[in-house]
Amino acid sequence: MRAVGAARRRRAAGRDSGMVTSEYAMGIVAAVAFAVVLYKVVTSGAVSAELQGIVKRALDARM
């Protein structure tokens, strides 16, 4: 009887190994929200000017 119960538990655990659709949806929403925040930060005036300065110094570097 114990062997049957153990086999059922193993099968049930195997079915629950992935994400369900609602978890995928929440993951996508979180990723999009993070991308929007990152975009806003990178395109802000101070960060944009600093990034341009870094690129300018890198391109003006002597080899």
Index terms:
single chain; 0% strand; membrane; 3 helices; 63 residues; DUF4244 domain-containing protein; transmembrane; transmembrane helix; DUF4244
SSE map:
Elements: H1 2-15, H2 21-42, H3 45-60
Pfam family, one: DUF4244
Transmembrane segments: 21-42
Protein name: DUF4244 domain-containing protein
Question: Your description of this structure?
Answer:
The protein is mostly helical and 63 residues long. It is 83% helix and 0% strand. It contains 3 helices and no strands. It is elongated. It starts with a helix and ends with a helix. The mean pLDDT is 83. It comes from Streptomyces vinaceusdrappus.
Question: How large is the share of residues in beta strands?
Answer: under 5%
Shape: elongated
Based on secondary structure, the structural category is mainly alpha
**Count, helices:** 3
Summarize this structure briefly.
Keywords: Membrane, Transmembrane, Transmembrane helix. With 63 residues, the chain is mostly helical.
